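anyone seen this seq b4? input:
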Amino acid sequence: MNLNFKRRDAQQGSSLIEVLVTLVILMLGLLGLVGLMLQSQRSQMESYQRVQALVVLHDMVNRINANRKVAGCYVVTTAADGSPFLGTGSGIVAPVCALGTAEQQARAVQDMTEWNDLLLGSTEQSGGNNTGGMLGARGCVSETTPGVYQVSVVWQGNGKTVAPAGVSCASDLYGDDAQRRAVTAPLQIAKLS
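predicted toks r here
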C-alpha cells in the first residue's frame, strides 16, 4: 500500500512583516553608525585645529624668544581697525617700535607677517587657496605685566562649548563666544640691561 501524503509545511518562507521588521532594525543601526561617523569627523576636525593652533602658537613664542630684545615690538601687532589680533579679518600694521636695532625691528615685522600667513593657513594650499589653517584663526600677543607676555591663538570651533576664560583675544568675533576656542602660552622675558 502506497500512501502519498502531501505534507504541508507550516511556513514556506519569510513573511512580509518579518522582512519589514528586519529592514527597520537594519536601518536604525545604519543611522546610528552614520551619526557616529559624523561625530567622529567633528571630533577629528576639532583635534586637527587644536594641533594646528598649538604649532602656530609655539612658532610665535619661539620667534619672540629669538628676538627677545625687542619683545615689546610684538605687542603692538594690531589689525587695521585697531583691534589687537592678526589672522582672519585683520590687516598687518607695522609696529612703531623704538626698541633694539633697525635689524631687530625689521625681524619683528617679518615675524608678524609670517605668523599672520600661518594663521591664514598658508602652509597648505589647494587650487591657489590657503587650506592649512584653523577656521577663523586669529593670534594675539599682549604684555600682561612688565616682561611677561601672553601669546594666544583663537579659532572658531564646530559647536558650542564654554567660552575660554581669561583670554580676550578676538572675543565676540565668532557670533557666540562659546564657539571660540583658544590656546595660550605665557612667555617671560628677563629684563636685559
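The mean pLDDT is 82. Helices lie at 16-66, 71-75, 102-119. kinda curious what u guys think
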